Amino acid sequence: MPAATYSLDVLDPGTLRGSGDQIARALPPGKTGGIPQHDEETHALSLHGISLSFGGVAALVDVDLSVEPGEIRAIIGPNGAGKSSLINVISGVYRSNHGHVRIGSHTYRHVPTGRLASLGVARTFQNLALFKGLSVIDNVIAGRAYTVGSSFAEQILGLGRARREEADARERAARIIGFLHLDQVSDRLVGTLPYGLQKRVELARALVAEPKVLLLDEPMAGMTASEKNDMADFIRTARDQYDTTVILIEHDIGVVMQLSDRIAVLDYGRKIADGSPDEIRSDERVIDAYLGVVAENEDGEGI
Ligand SMILES: Nc1ncnc2c1ncn2[C@@H]1O[C@H](COP(=O)(O)OP(=O)(O)OP(=O)(O)O)[C@@H](O)[C@H]1O
Q1: How far is CA 74 from CA 18, 117, 179, 303, in A?
Q2: Residue 291 pLDDT level (bands cut at 50, 70, 90)
Q3: Residue 153 to residues 42, 138, 220, 274: CA-CA distances in angstroms?
Q4: Phi and psi dihedrals of 112, rounded to 5?
């Protein structure tokens, strides 16, 4: 979970200045003060001209991306291509140098991390970010933390609203745990579970927030082939059942090709292709920059 907090440094579309909330209130849905719309109202999420650099290193260069509701969109590319940076810009962990992010009807120069849950965005991390000393169910309940309306005092004192919210969170968490076939380990401490199951717990914790947009940073890293297949099935079913849009980074090209509706390819921070799995598979630039290299390393498997 990102520990840092960030100021609301939000879009100034020329005539408007102010916080993200001010801008969101000032602009009716679909209006972004002169910024091109590109049918944005139909997009679950879109990025426009995103550039990000770290010192002299250009992590992202003028990246555009539009993701439709209900789509499973993979972001692929060689190591260091900028995939995680892109997810981190979408989730407000990184502040881009240029460009803006549109989530639903809200447009941001810097997405306010603290408002992600209320914007309907949840994410998982490349390296697990779970509470290892807590049980599976308690980790999943933690995914509802941003949705509670009761005050800290109400929670400490176990007052009415806090008690109802806790019961509701527990019930929703139990439902997701059942959905992801984690019932058998619901009371186990997360730290004692095999890695593949921990990755599934992280998915459960993101899903329990009932996100409109789910960002998955390498959800299958370190898994066996059969664990990856299970995870791919869970992601697909989660998309269908919870009506969510999924953006995922994944290195296993075989899984990506089967799971994704569309795939965006990054290379040296630039988007070099964006299309259906078939289009990406036969794209010469992608083969040169990435797929050819993956095929060589994996002896041709998986593509
Ligand atoms: N916090 C940071 N500080 C400095 N440089 C960074 C930081 N985060 C990313 N970078 C640099 O930005 C570039 C893109 O990195 P990023 O992690 O986004 O790539 P990636 O495609 O996710 O790579 P991988 O597949 O290895 O995870 C790399 O050159 C990386 O070294």
Answers
A1: 33, 22, 23, 15
A2: confident
A3: 41, 20, 39, 49
A4: -75, 110
Q: Find the range with the poorest average confidence among 44-48, 144-148, 157-161.
A: 157-161
Q: What's the 54 CA to ligand 1 centre distance in angstroms?
A: 9
Counted residue by residue, the chain has a size of 303
The SS3 assignment for 4 reads coil
Cβ atoms of 159 and 218 within 8 Å: the answer is no
Per the CB < 8 A criterion, the answer to whether 74 and 249 are in contact is yes
Report whether residue 84 contacts ligand 1, using a CB cutoff of 6 Å.
yes
Q: Which residue has the tokens 């994944």?
A: 250
Domains of the chain: 42-120+216-297 (3.40.50.300), 128-210 (3.40.50.300)
> What is the CB neighbour count within 10 angstroms for residue 92?
25
Q: What is the pLDDT of residue 36?
A: 41
Ligand 1 centroid distance, CA of 71 (Å) = 25
